[in-house]
Amino acid sequence: MDQIIQSPGKYIQGAGVLARLGDYLQPLAARHLVVGDKFVLGFAEEMLKESGKKAGISLEIAAFGGECSQNEINRLQTLARQTDCAAVVGIGGGKTLDTAKALAHALSVPVVVVPTIASTDAPCSALSVIYTDAGEFERYLLLPKNPDMVIVDTRVIAGAPARLLAAGIGDALATWFEARACARSGARTMAGGVSTQAALALAELCYHTLLNEGEKAMMAAQANVVTTALEKVTEANTFLSGVGFESGGLAAAHAIHNGLTTLADAHHYYHGEKVAFGTLVQLVLENAPQDELTAVMTLCQRVGLPITLAQLDITEDIPQKMRTVAEAACAEGETIHNMPGGATPEQVFAALLVADQTGKAFLQRSS
């Protein structure tokens, strides 16, 4: 199998970069359709228009309808054609960015992605998740290429709730361990081949960045200020983890997350919060060294990520619920089968219970 790595055409990050957006968009097209969250447009629309004006380009602003659905993509496609836009910009959260990527694909034009939170590693990926108009999952849209540019304003990231940055740390925390497992098993990644040295190096750098800078970055986010640590963690959450998961591979941690989504108890927790617990489960599943378990639990405790089931509000009928999670995590096509030797529902059930006990014991020792 061939080794493959893929990534955005360009990654740009800095405090106040939104004010310079027009300079980066100018080489792509003369007219851009900007699809933005209503909340984001409330504070950024005039700045965006001014930036475009200074760069000599036109920005057609369109408020995102709320769901990354086929009907919303069709609506924006009509608008883009009516206004002769030759590029798409998505600015906001995950569904807005997925809509922009899908729209640009439908129009066969460049796309620029501008995430306003650092809660997941999805902005850099060649993937959109399509929902119904009612918000129910419909399908994955695998795109032929990654975004042309990803532009991150860390001043905006710092202004978001700190819990969102923590969720991004949780999502990114899994990247190295899942990529390492896929490298050991020779699994095919989302890039279509086996991992490269570069992808593994980025995934490992992501992990060490979180260990060294995660707690400091959270303090900056809580104070709504930009620091070197916040810059480094934003890059880790968005770019290092984005390239790392797509070209390094997914394994047990994300499959455990998917299993946990079957429980109503944890529905109100963010993706990255559930992935963090999934990472602990993966480490138990592969009998990782105690120092790795301790390092992961220490980081999670310091940035506010769950390491027990109770911290995900799962407190009753635990054996029965963990059976359900284990079965869902091991469903056909799940990424847990990328683990060396695979995994059975019985093994995952055991790892879930032991991970919970491991987290409880750690918290008791730390109190």
Task: Report a brief summary of the structure.
This protein is an alpha/beta fold and 367 residues long. It has helices at 21-25, 38-55, 70-82, 94-107, 154-159, 162-185, 197-222, 228-248, 252-260, 271-285, 290-303, 318-329, 345-366, and strands at 11-14, 31-36, 58-63, 87-92, 111-115, 127-131, 137-142, 149-153. It has two domains: 11-157, 3-Layer(aba) Sandwich (Rossmann fold); 162-366, Dehydroquinate synthase-like - alpha domain (Dehydroquinate synthase-like, alpha domain, Up-down Bundle).
Q: How much of the polypeptide forms β-strand, as a percent range?
A: 5-15%
Radius of gyration: 20 Å
The CATH superfamily of the largest domain is identified as Dehydroquinate synthase-like - alpha domain
Low-confidence stretches: none
Termini Cα gap: 49 Å
Number of domains: 2
Order the strands across the largest sheet as they lie in space: 1-8-5-4-2-3
The assigned structural class equals alpha/beta
Number of strands: 8
Q: Classify the fold: give the CATH topology of the largest domain.
A: Dehydroquinate synthase-like, alpha domain
CATH level-two architecture of the largest domain: Up-down Bundle
Sheet with the most strands? Answer: 6 strands, parallel
Shape: globular
Question: What's the helix count?
Answer: 13
Q: How much helical structure, as a percent, in the residues?
A: 40-55%
